[in-house]
Design goal:
single chain, mainly alpha, 5 helices
Length: 83
Amino acid sequence: MMYGIEHKVEPPEPVVGNAYELDIEPLPTNLRDALRLLSSSEMMKHYLGSDFVEVFVTCKEKELEQFEKHITDIEYDWYLHSF
C-alpha cells in the first residue's frame, strides 16, 4: 500500500467473473516460489531492508528444507505402508 501511495499508483479495475480465466500473473502457489519472488523484489528490499529480506528468505529456505525431509502421514500411507 505504501508503495502505491508514494508513487500515486492507480489501482486496477475490480475483477468481474472468474479471475483464474484472466490473463494476469498469478500469485505464487508454494513457499519456494514465493521466497524467490520476495528475494528478487526491489520494492520489498526498499521497505523492509535488503538485510532483513536476505535473512528472512534464508531462514524460510532452511525451514522448507527441513519440512521437505519429513515424511507426512499421507506419504507414508501411499508409498511405505504397503511394504
